[in-house]
Amino acid sequence: MRSPEDRGLRESAIFDRASIAAIQHAAKTGVYDIRGWGAKRAVPHFDDLLFLGSAISRYPMEGYRERCDTDVTMGEMNAKNPMTLDIPITIAGMSFGALSAQAKEALGRGASAMGTSTTTGDGGMTEEEREHSSKLVYQLLPSRYGMNPDHLRRADAIEVVVSQGAKPGGSGMLLGQKISSRVAEMRTLPEGIDQRSACRHPDWTGPDDLTLKIEELREITDWNVPIHVKVAASRPYYDTKLAVAAGADVVVVDGMQGGTAATQEVFIEHVGIPTLAAIGPAVKALKEMGVHRKVKLIISGGIRTGADVAKALALGADAVAIGTAALIALGDNDPRWAEEYEKIGSAAGYYDDFHEGRDPAGITTQDPKLAARLDPVEAGKRLKNYLQVLTLEAQTIARACGKSHVTHLEPEDLVALTIESAAMTGLPLAGTDWVPGRSSNGWGPSSNGL
Amino acid sequence: METLTETTVDFDLAEQTVRELNHELHAPTATHYRVLNPRGAHSVAAGINDEIDVEIDGDVGYFCAGMHKTGKVTVNGMAGPGVAENMMSGVVHVKGHASQSAAATAHGGLLVVDGNASTRCGISLKGGDIVVKGNIGAMSAFMAQAGRIVVCGDAGEALGDSIFEARLYVRGKVASLGADCIAKEMREEHREELVQLLKDAGMDQEANDDAYVDSFTRYGSARTLYHFNSGE
């Protein structure tokens, strides 16, 4: 049978198949769609940038031999025990509850093998996670599920989560299917209920309060560890300034492509700004305050390759965080579970119903049988391999740009491929010196008619 | 653990810093401490993790006795926002009034406020107990998951909004109830629980007065928001 396209039928660009299915689902159920993953729509991203590499005016480093360091240290300004990551890639906060205990263990194993950190997420710290994570960031979230000062004192860093890229101003959910007895106990909730996380912190509001909250956390932990502040990318210039003013050692800016375990689809796709658009304002804020490269900037949301890592660093970030990519490395959406994805109405490569707890790969589930499918040792090795590739790729690019440390990459190493990405990043359009909104130096298309 | 000195150590915040105070309290050399001249300082006695007794003579700022565990902290004055936030165990006693978010997210222990507590008292409570001898402000017990709150006076607007399994006992008027919070039957086990909480707060006379105890109303969750499809 010929396809609709072969028969000359035209699919609407506006009412595409996903839009039609969403309308039909809403009409049938009266309930909005909840899903995991992050924004799936196309927005300007790192693919819209290119590195220039070296030629006569820039001198490269030998690709495989010359030293190109990758370490980054957090908290040197305030913490007695700053945290050094061997690579500029860390694992973003993902909760036990959203993920199986096996998945959390695997994240710890993979990250530790590469000398980097992993992060707890909503719902507290599990022993498996602490045991297998050589560097663990403990999140202080609005819900305070499982918040425990003993865990706080065992953390290598603390992250005050203000908001998340997938849902700036919103809050997380964990539906009843995933509130197992262990999750319920950790979160002090009845088993099987649909749990909503709070969207506001219960004991502070506004930047002045945040200053005092950070001070309290430092007092409780005797000023031992760095304190991060994580904000969704919505007003990154102001939020970065306020976080720094409040005393943060690290600002984490999470773009709209940042993942979630469960949020309303309308939120994921329509609130917040792209990761690419968030870096420039955050860096500008740090520079204006004189703390760029001192207060560290971690960027997250849609990091997939070493090129993405290198581009984020060149734009001014000190490190990146990965969530969705880390889950894929563990085995999420693996084609070997294709038949089972089909059975639950999805497909390998498309699966995003993390909230339902039926993940065939055993990652976003609390079902003991499904979770047992994930071997934490093997999955940890896959994550380690993936992190290694990201690092090697970023180093390769950095060397090609003549840099002996990946964080020496700079905006001058980059150009933009599209007008949108040029405007968002302040980089010139490739082959020109033209940055939208700024005057030309005289050899770009705005002046020479190219 | 080494034996602590059974004497009271004075710590004058006019002379020393909060950081020095907390450093001492986190590795205590004595069992009793008296803090002088707090003058509204923040994070006073935050993060205690030992069986020590700390008495603070004066008013404190934000997050006094934050994340408190096992010991006792007494504030002979007023307490700013977030007193005893995320308390795990032990006792915190405010002899004056407490500002907003008192005992927010407390997982255990007991907070006693002799005066009034402002808005969001017991917000997101996770198992701790609170006894307020005066009134509490609006949005108290918001999303409270577990634990008990006793209010001997009145409660402000939207009490217990989106409450889970926490139990609230209010003697006076409630300005309004929040979403999914309802008045509930006071069964014998609740009465016994209330009497014990009053005794724990040093209110033995009231606890032994049947008419006083009977004048409380219990509030809790109607449990209609526990599942998305049924509640939104």
UniProtKB/TrEMBL annotation, chain A:
Residue ranges constituting the Glutamate synthase domain according to the UniProt record: 75-331, 355-403
Coiled coil: none
Claim: S-adenosyl-L-methionine is one of the keywords in the record: no
MF terms in GO: glutamate synthase activity
A Pfam family the protein falls into: Glu_synthase
Swiss-Prot/TrEMBL keywords: Oxidoreductase
Biased composition (Low complexity): 110-120
GO biological process: glutamate biosynthetic process
SUPFAM superfamilies membership: FMN-linked oxidoreductases
InterPro entries noted in UniProt: Aldolase_TIM (IPR013785), GltB (IPR024188), GltB_archl_type (IPR043578), Glu_synthdom (IPR002932)
Location of region: Disordered: 110-129
Entry keyword Oxidoreductase: yes
Similarity comment: family membership: Belongs to the glutamate synthase family.
The protein's name: N-methylglutamate synthase subunit C
UniProtKB/TrEMBL annotation, chain B:
Superkingdom of the organism of origin: Bacteria
One Gene Ontology molecular-function label: oxidoreductase activity
CDD domains: GXGXG
Designated name of the protein: N-methylglutamate synthase subunit B
Organism name: Enteractinococcus coprophilus
